[in-house]
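Margin note: ligand = protoporphyrin IX containing FE.
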Amino acid sequence: MEQSAVTQSFGRCSVNPKFLDRFYEIFLASSPAIAPMFRNTDFAKQKVALRSGLTLMMMYNEGNKVGQQGLDRIGQSHNRQHLKIDPSLYTYWIDSLIKTVKECDPKCDAALEAEWRTALKKGAKHIADQF
Ligand code: HEM
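Resulting structure:
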């Protein structure tokens, strides 16, 4: 099956060695609530986790069941019993990722940005709905 435009853009971002580091720089600075949550985080591991989380989001966006199951698991780890990530915080995650994509994918225009936003909102909603 052909990949969606967003999945292809994710591929271009992924070959940029600065992609994941830039995301965490932008995300941690996006709200004073966020950096303290990552004060004990091993960012080498966290970057691997983000890459796989984004891969699941791409799959979910394309209607893939395995993608949905992966986001179910992330929804559990982020819920009120575990990481306690308030649903209002997902907007920072989405906006930070969009900024990072615009820096890292030279082909990202307004139309592609809108497609990214739709895909990320859909995946983040699936995760946040399990709070
Ligand atoms: C919808 C977007 C998000 C995705 C795909 C995502 C993905 C992940 C993944 C894969 C992990 C590793 C643990 C696991 O596998 O469950 C993780 C950990 C974590 N996430 Fe998220 N996350 C998202 C949004 C957020 C938001 C909005 C916050 C906070 C504002 C957040 C805070 C954290 C924290 C604090 C950890 C643990 C870090 C540590 O181990 O020190 N996440 N996330």
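The domain at 5-128 is CATH 1.10.490.10 (Globin-like).
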